[in-house]
Amino acid sequence: MLGRLVLLSAPSGAGKTTLVRELLKREPELRFSISYTTRPPRPNEQSGRDYFFVSVDEFAAMIKAGEFLEHAQVFDHQYGTARHQVQKLLDEGFTVLLEIDWQGARQVRAAMPEAASVFILPPSVEELERRLRGRGSDSEAVIKRRFRDAVDDISHWQEFDYAVVNDDLGRAAEELHRVIRGDASASGTEQPELARQVWHILHG
Ligand code: 5GP
Hints:
single chain, Rossmann fold, four-stranded mixed β-sheet, binds guanosine-5'-monophosphate
């Protein structure tokens, strides 16, 4: 195994997808692991590009066959990372990015302690709520639930090696790029300044 494994988690509304896209532009040696999910595809999503969309039975068969490096129930659906896909990319020498929730990150950290894990934070809870509302089509009840789930997700930030606040896309992408290159002690979750910052994100 030559490459480096990076775990990236964020509450929904933290702007993770845009950040990952920016990072893939900056880092040619980076590859994104495509997850399996039982969630139905959204209108603009393609199987094999965004996710591999599978049935509940297919997902259960993969669990039974031990095909997942990690898997978890997130909201109402199952998500998992195929072991063989990650292994192949690491063997080829790529840096592999897993975009997974905190439960999955826990499992991978236990199996592969050398992996670097990063939590992406929104700049404030107001901004988080604004981004969740900005999606437009969701009902008030759905937005409220997503918001509660997101704040709950944030409570796990200190389990990660690094945390990056997504206040400005260019700045956050640069910081994340440093983490991926293994040069980001300033973003370590043990930094007292970061704990203060997270307190302000949550409590204003
Ligand atoms: P979405 O349905 O909005 O694409 O993703 C919902 C959540 O599932 C996100 O927080 C995302 O990080 C998480 N997720 C996506 N793929 C995986 C995976 O393979 N494993 C785990 N544990 N979580 C995942």
